[in-house]
Design a protein that fits this description.
Layout (H helix, E strand, L loop, with lengths): L1 E5 L6 H15 L3 E6 L13 E5 L13 H16 L3 E5 L1 H17 L6 E5 L2 H4 L8 H10 L2 E4 L2 H10 L6 E3 L6 H4 L5 H7 L5 E6 L8 H14 L2 E6 L5 H10 L6 E3 L6 H6 L3 E4 L8 H8 L4 E4 L14 E4 L4 H12 L2 H15 L4 H13 L6
Parallel strand pairs: 1-2, 1-4, 2-3, 4-5, 5-6, 6-7, 8-9, 8-11, 9-10, 11-12, 12-13
Helix pairs in contact: 2-3, 3-5, 9-10, 9-13, 12-14
Bound molecules: ligand GMT.
Ligand GMT binds next to helix 1.
């Protein structure tokens, strides 16, 4: 099939997932055309059957806000027509679903029918999408999509609660390439961070308010009192300075390392003992799944769809949002004993296999095939 993929090219989970999906589809022989405003972060090597079309957004002195959505819809029309695409798969509703609707209508006038699959990822519904500034357009364009998918049952339910959606929303979970993430730790890397064999706790996110990263620091503060340990942060974003400041105020700054945005996540997960995810909301929590595929148990909140990924007492533990005390106790329970930690690691890894790339990609292909006349 010839598939167009539209996503955010940055470090967010939706962009990562869309890029991994496109590359996996290309490996299976499909032609995949990415239409984005910059090269997606995980699309950093030549992959046969993958094409990248950059959306150019010309500026003009009149524009305080260059009309990205218009440029995107025009790019979609161009790529679909000239590459004879079978369908368009947009990730994250805003503004991709409405740009896709515009492209679809333009192409209809030329006698071209392009099916649109919209995948909802989380904040496009729960945070940004439900804001009145965007909600009428978001609801309309989701309803106009030919197929709607959500990355968890929780997000499916949240979408029905938030908008008047008249169509079926199909759930296709986030996925992980278990083989890629199941790595041996690089000893040299581990020694730099934890020279005396300390436990390594890890948090990776875009440091937005929704992640409550200060709770990660507070959990670690309790853990390091009892167990020699280090805290590693991956990613960057608006809350990072506050997080660093909290570490300094608590006197634990030297036990915390910030490595910023990283691409080789599999090497980082491989050296970790525990992943902390303290979010106010996660539709799914892709980073938690990647941790589990790397044999790293998870202590998280029970918000949103996290309970569909992190299984209480099996792959880690969950607590209410903001309940630092319980999260610290549970982290200590996992980390204080090698046998317990080992058992959690194995169970986390086993559970991650349910979300392996080989299981999930065919679910998207099944949707695509509904629209492909020649396949
Ligand atoms: O987590 C973020 O803030 C980024 C966001 C995105 O859209 O890039 O992630 C969302 O999509 C991921 C992939 O489907 C999910 O695993 C994340 O849970 C979800 N984030 C939230 O719901 C906050």
């Amino acid at each position: 099939m010839r598939i167009g993929i539209v996503c955010y090219p940055t470090y967010g989970g939706s962009g990562v997932l869309a890029t991994e999906l496109g590359q996996a589809l290309a490996q299976k022989g499909h032609d995949v055309h990415f239409i984005t405003y910059q090269q997606p972060v995980r699309l950093n090597a030549f992959v046969p059957n993958v094409y990248y079309h950059e959306v150019q957004v010309p500026t003009y002195p009149l524009f305080d806000f260059p009309p990205y959505e218009t440029a995107l819809a025009s790019a979609m029309v161009d790529v679909i027509k000239n590459n004879n695409l079978d369908l368009l798969h947009v990730h994250y509703a805003i503004p991709h679903a409405s740009a896709a609707y515009m492209a679809k209508k333009i192409l209809q006038q030329e006698g071209i029918e392009i099916p649109v699959v919209t995948t909802l990822h989380g904040t496009d519904i729960t945070l940004v999408g439900k804001d009145k500034t965007y909600s009428p357009v978001v609801a309309f364009s989701i309803n106009e999509s030919d197929v709607i998918t959500a990355v968890s049952n929780n997000l499916r339910e949240e979408t029905y609660k938030t908008f008047n959606i008249k169509k079926e929303i199909e759930v296709i979970y986030n996925f992980v390439d278990v083989e890629r993430f199941n790595r041996k730790p690089l000893d040299a890397f581990k020694k730099v961070l934890a020279p005396n064999g300390e436990r390594i706790l890890l948090h990776a996110s875009n440091f937005r308010k929704v992640k409550r990263v200060q709770d990660v620091v507070n959990v670690f503060y309790e853990v390091q009192k009892e167990i020699p340990s280090k805290l590693l942060f991956v990613g960057d974003g608006p809350e990072r300075q506050h997080v660093e400041e909290l570490g300094r105020n608590l006197g634990i700054a030297e036990k915390m390392t910030f490595v910023g945005k990283q691409e080789q996540m599999e090497d980082i997960f491989a050296i970790a003992d525990l992943f902390l995810l303290t979010s106010d909301y996660e539709s799914f929590g892709l980073a938690a799944l990647e941790a589990m595929a790397s044999k790293v148990p998870v202590v998280s909140t029970n918000a949103g769809g996290l309970g569909e990924v992190n299984i209480e007492g099996e792959t880690g533990f969950m607590a209410d949002v903001g309940d630092v005390k319980t999260m610290s106790e549970k982290a200590l329970e996992i980390l204080s004993n090698d046998d317990t930690l080992g058992a959690f690691k194995e169970r986390a890894f086993k559970h991650a296999q349910q979300f392996n790339i080989d299981t999930i990609i065919p679910q998207y292909e099944e949707i695509y095939r509904r629209f492909c006349k020649d396949c």
